[in-house]
Amino acid sequence: MSARLANEPRTVKPTRATGIAGAGDMLDDRMLGRWLSALAVLVASSWLCACRSDVPDAADASPDPSAALPPDVDAVLAARCRKCHSDPPINFAPFPLVTWQNTQVAAPGHRAAPVYEIMEMRLHDATFPMPPPGNPITDADRSVLDAWIAQGAPAKR
Ligand code: HEC
User: CB atoms < 10 A from the CB of 57, how many?
Assistant: First the structure.
């Protein structure tokens, strides 16, 4: 911050551009824009899901801690999803997709629906697809996840 700004009295008024007091000091516009669009998508997708089914399959509150992902599913998640859904997640992703247990617990903002059901929704969401634009996935890789989720996303046998 410049010396001139630092010496100004700290009576922060809402700026005309953002209406948020001092927002320009804390976030540059690009970060704010990205954050707001991630938030909008999250709100929109939770709303869509809330209408999707009356009784979602209940997520497993304590999935078997010794169970592992099937190797083909693990490989697809590693190649296509963990760039963001790592543990801890990065790039604004809401949860990790690293272990089988990660896929069985309740997805944040989706009542009792497990993460794997939300994965299925977003893998086929024309408007807000996962992976997001710029992060390609092949039909073969998507089919691996589809087939696994269709069986109820079981652990490795
Ligand atoms: C480039 C980063 C990135 C990659 C790669 C990525 N995601 Fe995401 N994912 C995000 C972000 C950011 C969000 C939160 C915003 C949103 O819901 O769109 C998210 C949200 C989600 C959600 C929660 C959606 C909801 O409605 O609550 C699921 C499920 C998901 N991703 C699955 C996947 C799967 C499966 C893959 C791989 C096939 C994947 N993602 C790859 C960044 C990524």
Answer: 13
Instruction: Provide the residue ranges of all domains of the chain, joining segments of one domain with +.
Output: 3-50, 71-150
106, 57 Cβ separation under 8 angstroms: no
Mark the ranges of the chain whose per-residue pLDDT is less than 70: 1-56
Choosing from 47, 72, 84, 138 the residue with most ligand 1 atoms within 8 A of its CB, the one to mutate for a pocket test is: 84
Percent of the chain with pLDDT over 70: 64
CB 119 within 8 Å of CB 131 = no
Backbone angles phi and psi of 106, in degrees to 5: -70, 135
- Does this model's pTM top 0.85? My answer is no
Between the CA of 55 and the centroid of ligand 1 the distance, in Å, is 23
